[in-house]
Amino acid sequence: MREKPKQQMRIWAMLCHLSALLAWFLVLFLVFLGIPLYLPLNLLAPLMIWRFQRAKYPWIDFQGKESLNFQISLTLYTFIVIAISLFFVLTSFSLAVTTNSTINEVKITLDSLLIVMMCLISLILLLQSFLVSFAAMKAYNGQHYRYPLTMRVLR
Predict the structure, then answer these.
(1) Residue % of the chain over a pLDDT of 90
(2) Which of 7, 10, 141, 150 has the highest Cβ tally under 10 A?
(3) How far apart are CA 119 and CA 144, in angstroms?
(4) Rounded to an integer, what is the distance from CA 4 to the centroid of its chain?
């Protein structure tokens, strides 16, 4: 049976997971303030924790890689959703202009696309908050946890 990691290691491993979640909330806060900023800040804090603590503790090396792999995957998924949404917005807008649609038809189309995009992003964030909280609890308890739907960039 594996030995349970020490409490200091478990706290750092838990912070590796939770710091990414806090960065997403910071990005959302900036967007809601009207600052159209999307930087993958969710990678910065776990990367710093993993980079400086991995040599000391192998448990943090494992948990940091797992957290970073999940955050890289989520960032890529978010970029894909944004790219697809922009494609649909541009396509629907160009169709509306070429068919001489009224302003109300264009507005309804763009509003519905915005609602769909916000629903997809909200779903990604909700999924992330649940999975990150679960992984942080597992890391603090000294248990192994592998995120689902994750590309293993760091091995």
Answers:
(1) 13
(2) 10
(3) 31
(4) 29
